[in-house]
Amino acid sequence: MNLNPSAMTDNEKGKNLHDRACRGEFLTEEERQFLDRWYAKMDLEESLALGFPNRISVPLAHVNEAFIQALREKYSGNIRLDIQIVDLSDAPSFTEEDFWSIIDQVVADEDTGEEVLEAAVNTLSERPVSHIYLFEDRLAEKLFLLDTEAHARAAFPDSPISADGFLYARAAVVAGGKSRYEAILNDPSLMPVDEGFEALLSLAGKAFQKRTGEEFQYIPIRCYETFSNPDGWRETWWEGFDFFQSAGLFKDRAANADQIRKEAWRSNR
Questions:
Q1: Cα(185)–Cα(265) distance, integer angstroms
Q2: 47 Cβ partners below 8 Å, 6+ apart?
Q3: Tens-place pLDDT, residues 46-97
Q4: N or C: which end of the chain has fewer CB within 10 A?
Q5: Burial level of 30, CB count in 10 A (0-12/13-18/19+)?
Q6: Beta-bridge partner residues of 115
Q7: Residues 127, 18: Cα–Cα separation, whole Å
Q8: Shortest CA distance to 48 belongs to which of 18, 22, 74?
Q9: For the CA atoms of the chain, what is the radius of gyration?
Q10: Helix, strand, or coil (residue 42)
């Protein structure tokens, strides 16, 4: 493929940027914005193609006549569209450095040896509400990039892969800080075994509630549930469903046939 950006279609450019992001390469702000738009487009196409009432998170500027028309053509009858308004303009941008500075405040309790969130929650709650949303977006992105078969097999070398367990293991990697995260992202063999930190997933929600007194209902722009990264599981999906079920990869969700069909489509998109 010709990787000259000027010669690529939007879809080729989006795939190229996605591959670079998965490898941990630096993206300029312009490239990141393009990638975010491409992800939003893919999410909409996926939702319409699958026929699922899927969550769609897109910038307001992307909700144009074509977007609305596509929804109207696909969904009819007794259907309600819930719109979540998130104002991201009330403060300066929330940077990568801002994200990791908050993660660095997740500390280990000297008595229990477990990480605690209090300091990080307090710091994030003192920031503008938009930063809490953006923190959740960045966390979701990092969890998504770790969602690969290679990382999962390293985390569960001698047992079936647990969807929830692998999510919590990825959260533990992020909680370990930027250097550890980047090292493991680039080398799945470094993925820890028998380690998890589910509590990290509630950090933004706790900060939001502390600041506003309300429940956090924000939907991040990337889904971080296990098996959500189609490129991370692509090769195994091509081997067929029998392998997955015999290997126990759907240990936590084999009964959900609709979800399995959804993931199969995504992996071969």
A1: 25
A2: 53, 54, 56
A3: 554 443 445 565 667 667 665 676 667 666 667 777 776 766 565 568 899 9
A4: N
A5: exposed
A6: 108
A7: 30
A8: 74
A9: 19
A10: helix
